[in-house]
Design brief:
12 helices, about 45% helix, alpha/beta, binds 2-phosphoglycolic acid, TIM Barrel, about 15% strand
Length: about 260
Amino acid sequence: MRTPVIAGNWKMYKTPEEAEAFAAALHDTRLPDGVEAVICAPFVALPALRKALEGTGVGLGAQNVHWEREGAFTGEISVPMLRAIGVKYAIIGHSERRAYFAETDETVHRKLKAALAGGLVPIVCVGETLEEREQGRTKEVVRQQVEKALQGISAEDAARVIIAYEPVWAIGTGRAATAQDAEEVIAFIRDTVASLTDASTAAAVRIQYGGSVKPDNIRELLDMPNIDGALVGGASLDPASFIKLVQAAEAGDDR
Ligand code: PGA
């Protein structure tokens, strides 16, 4: 059975003080044990958040990472730097980074390899644009992104990867994919992982859905057999909403 993983992607929101206030609100509630909960915060909020999250069971994630360990890469942050401050996860290849910061399947692959080698859990984002969906190219686009990201990665390493299927048209629009549409693509992603590795690795990989996930639509998404959690932007910024998302993931923890 795959443990569901609910990851908040705070994007460019929250100062260290605001992150601490969020974490303080989590201390009043006991989060369910059967769900992996993660917050991916801006780099500068991570040290404060690490301390503030102690005792909550919520893991710490970054939103990006560079593939080299160190060097002349102005403005970048490496895997060992993140590990040194207690970060366990890193989002890689979010569509906003692909669209605005020139991330490609090649850089996503390099970052994925570096994260795995350095002991970070990568949350690799894939997903089609509205135009690609309307052209009937969703599976082709997603297959290519998954294949390039995982190319040459061992089955053992691939099993540690979290994949987030995030249709670009669903992000921040309030227009989530239907549970059926998300399930269809995510089952296809699992088949793609099987073809790159083997059936047991594909059965172990966690695949999230992301794009306008809210407390009131998460349950139907997670009820789908292949959807193992969610990557959540807007609805992860408010502690009460984040808690509801994590609690909803437990309610379906019977697969
Ligand atoms: P959203 O963002 O939940 O605000 O749509 C999801 C994401 O970009 O990861």
